[in-house]
Design a protein that fits this description.
alpha+beta; Beta-Lactamase; 5 helices
Length: 110
């Protein structure tokens, strides 16, 4: 039941490993970014994070085991999504991984 709730929750959930490969993503993240789950699971964080500092921030999160901030993610259609996130280290089936929970900030052109 919890898994189904997280998958449908109106927040983006990403799980990635020490190599920055996505191990899991929820349906809402897929929907917002326009990628299928399979497409995202073939990608790495820098493939989606659309700014040069993303790998450095990921390294900071790995060493501190926690990070929060604002990220820019590139959607499949090329648009950018601003995401406020909190991320931390977890044990994912016996492997260290990092879970990021993000809330999209929608910016109006008005």
């Amino acid at each position: 039941m919890l898994s189904a709730a997280i998958d449908a929750a109106p927040v983006c959930v990403f799980v990635a490993d020490v190599e920055m490969r996505y191990l899991a993503v929820n349906a809402y993240a897929c929907e917002l970014l326009g990628y299928s789950e399979g497409e995202l699971l073939e990608m790495k964080v820098p493939d989606v994070a659309s700014y040069a500092e993303a790998p450095e921030e990921y390294a900071t999160m790995m060493s501190a085991a926690y990070l929060s901030g604002v990220s820019r993610l590139r959607c499949k259609d090329g648009e950018e999504l601003i995401l406020r996130y909190v991320a931390g280290e977890v044990d994912f089936d016996g492997v260290p991984a990092f879970v990021s929970i993000g809330v999209a900030e929608f910016v109006s052109d008005d």
